[in-house]
Inverse folding.
């Protein structure tokens, strides 16, 4: 079955089970080799790249829908997803399916709910679905090299801005870093999210003041320099900071 | 025409012009007499209180829909609305219309997009629509005394939590306070949003450090104490802080 026929078959089934006009798009950020990545699918129809999004069943809660979608399309089952934005402009998605007539489920107007999650890529093996040729982590600075469909680049940018705001009021790193990490790795994560370099002394002082780190009696061996100390997150204090926020006032 | 008949008539028209399953609910906060208020409508059908929400036209952008809805239902034309949350649980709104059969437009499942705005109540005269008996500012600490329908109390609470997070990363007050205000009035605004008392010395020092205030050569007269200085916002610096955020890092 070619990819166009496959979409036609899905369309009839979709009309039965999904709400019209509404979709959900998860933006999953990962951190590896000092760079931020985002999870993308390459659809076999037209070979363009998209977020691993989908539709909402008539009989399911919206929050359950996005969890199901991420599992079905990428094999990820344990990401903590938060709504961050709604994309509701006219004609934002219809054009992608221009080869089809107006009766196609996928070609109607969709308002899409954006969800954000931070995820450590090494925690899972990605599993692509039958509609996709690839399911991959793409570094943010490589997004320009792939052909992204609809307004999904705009959705990723809004997610990154949200993350940048969040970093001032919530601790970040628990779902992105390995269990043991150096302060310099944590600083790098903050720098890629904020999009700017930070002064090392200030960063170390501020991050330690949050009380979310535990220094381990272990060092990272093998570098050219003095072996740096390893840290881990203090789970209890991290959870508290997440709940109460890092309030300035 | 009684209120039930009025809804039946609206239902047929609604099916023609609005997207199914999708609504928008604006949460408009005002600040007066040192207290936060929220804009609520009392529907003539069943006399319950609701946010001034509505539906999205098939031919309009989502952002335009919420502006139109707020104008039509409350007469407010100049609020700056920001999306803050999506409310998509099954059975969140259907029960309100239990007197009607399943063909009613209003009784289908709705996923609602919450929008937040800060607004100075003295800037406008509220104008209620034909579906409502009242359109009023209700103080947050009086919400327990009115009968709020659906999950609209939960929507208001989420909006307040969002505002509480925002206050750490964005300046707040420009749309809520009169042009000239005292530092103690501004402190009170921060206190009601944060839900806690702040140390006066710390607050004055931090708020002045943001560089968003201009001290006027004028005092507030008439109190029992020493006449306090009046301030106004420095519009340019305020706009800059709004755009760049009050980043901690």
């Amino acid at each position: 079955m070619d990819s166009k026929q496959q979409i036609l078959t899905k369309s009839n089934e979709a009309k039965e089970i999904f709400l019209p006009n509404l979709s959900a798009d998860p933006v999953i950020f990962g951190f590896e080799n000092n760079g931020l990545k985002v999870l993308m699918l390459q659809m076999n129809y037209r070979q363009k790249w998209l977020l691993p999004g989908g539709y909402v069943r008539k009989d399911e809660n919206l929050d359950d829908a996005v969890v199901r979608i991420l599992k079905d399309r990428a094999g990820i089952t344990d990401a903590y997803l938060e709504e961050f934005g709604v994309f509701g402009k006219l004609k934002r998605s219809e054009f992608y399916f221009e080869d089809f007539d107006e009766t196609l489920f996928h070609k109607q107007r969709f308002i899409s709910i954006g969800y954000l999650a931070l995820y450590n890529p090494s925690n899972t093996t990605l599993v692509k679905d039958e509609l996709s040729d690839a399911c991959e982590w793409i570094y943010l600075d490589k997004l320009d090299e792939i052909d992204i469909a609809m307004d999904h680049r705009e959705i990723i940018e809004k997610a990154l801005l949200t993350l940048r705001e969040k970093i001032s009021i919530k601790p970040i790193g628990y779902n992105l870093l390995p269990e043991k990490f150096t302060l310099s790795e944590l600083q790098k994560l903050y720098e890629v999210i904020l999009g700017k370099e930070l002064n090392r002394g200030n960063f170390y002082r501020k991050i330690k003041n949050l009380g979310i780190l535990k220094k381990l009696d272990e060092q990272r061996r093998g570098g050219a320099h003095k072996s740096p100390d390893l840290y881990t997150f203090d789970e209890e204090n991290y959870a508290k900071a997440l709940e109460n926020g890092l309030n300035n006032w």
